[in-house]
Specification:
By secondary structure, the chain is an alpha/beta fold. It has a single domain, classed as NAD(P)-binding Rossmann-like Domain (Rossmann fold, 3-Layer(aba) Sandwich). The protein is about 50% helix and about 15% strand. The protein has seven helices and nine strands. The strands form two sheets. A seven-stranded parallel beta sheet has the order 3-2-1-4-5-6-9, sandwiched between helices. β2, α2 and β3 form a beta-alpha-beta unit. α1 runs parallel beside α2 and α3 packs parallel to α4. It is globular, with a radius of gyration of 18 Å. Bound molecules: NADP nicotinamide-adenine-dinucleotide phosphate. The site of NADP nicotinamide-adenine-dinucleotide phosphate has 28 residues, from α1.
């Protein structure tokens, strides 16, 4: 699908996985892009390919979103943009180990990347989106927000923030023409499980039917955005698990309080 009047889509964490898949899909639809991540050489390669293949413009914004000064720089760039059509707050990473065992610097970096950056970048983007009566913000959260297990505490808590933040913004933006989505992908093939933190994890042993490709996740997200769905869990199996988890929690709450 081509767009008549392409705006700019800013994607954080666009150097691999789901962010790269968003960049590729939106470029094929004719949008210009602003790509944010730390690995500039990967962004350069993606930008070069997408510019020549789709005749679009791609701006590279190298930034470490765990750093205050880099968040401020991206925030200022967003505030200067007149045609920001969509903001995809996708950058993220995981850690393994109990909260007290993970280096505190890693946990505070996670809070900055998953919570502070999306909040500040959304805050910077919204005034012009609301004034133009159009735009969208996609916050990439996770079904981990609904399941608590030891070793995932800060990750689950930060992703829960993104869901609550998106649901609240969705209510505040009703009638403005601006859409908000909390995208909650299940196991997705990407760079996520291939970092140092996951060297001892057994993610490879998870059954194949639980996994989706980044492209499938992006397709579900963009289709759901058209329907104005706020919390989006791609994949039948993931939705089934998510509904069961919610029901189970409700069952426990009933058992406890009734
Ligand atoms: N894969 C899954 O199973 C899964 C499931 C649920 C949710 N998610 C969420 O999906 C999102 C995308 O992850 P992915 O699966 O596509 O993994 P990925 O391939 O590892 O991509 C993560 C992206 O985030 C960027 N990033 C990480 N730390 C950053 C920082 N400090 N500053 C700026 N950018 C940073 C990385 O870029 P640089 O390294 O170049 O900076 C990379 O582009 C994350 O928010 C993740 O929590 C993933």
């Amino acid at each position: 699908m081509e767009v008549d009047n392409p705006g700019v889509v800013l994607i954080t964490g666009a150097s691999s996985g789901i962010g790269e898949a968003f960049a590729r899909k939106l470029a094929s639809m004719g949008y210009n892009l602003a790509l944010v991540a730390r690995r500039k050489e990967r962004l350069d390669a993606i930008a070069g390919e997408l510019e020549s293949r789709h005749s679009i413009k791609v701006e590279i914004l190298q930034a470490d979103l765990s750093h205050e000064e880099d968040i401020s720089r991206i925030e200022r760039r967003i505030a200067d943009m007149d045609a920001l059509t969509m903001l995809v707050n996708n950058a993220g990473f995981g850690t393994t180990g109990h909260c007290s065992d993970v280096e505190i610097a890693k946990s505070t970096a996670m809070i900055a990347v998953h919570v502070t950056a999306p909040t500040r970048l959304s805050h910077a983007a919204l005034p012009k989106m609301v004034a133009r009566k159009q735009g969208a913000i996609i916050n990439v959260a996770s079904p981990s927000a609904f399941v608590l297990f030891p070793g995932n505490t800060i990750y689950s808590a930060t992703k829960h923030y993104l869901i609550t933040f998106s649901e609240g913004l969705g209510l505040e933006l009703e009638g403005t023409g601006v859409r908000v989505q909390a995208l909650c992908p299940g196991f997705t093939r990407s760079g996520f499980h291939h970092t140092e933190a996951f060297t001892k994890s057994k993610s490879d042993s998870m059954p194949g039917f639980l996994w989706m490709s980044a492209e499938e996740v992006v397709k579900c997200s963009l289709e759901a955005l058209k329907r104005k769905q706020v919390v989006v869990v791609p994949g039948f199996i993931n939705r089934l698990m998510y509904i069961r988890m919610r029901r189970f929690t409700a069952y426990l709450a009933r058992k406890m309080f009734q």
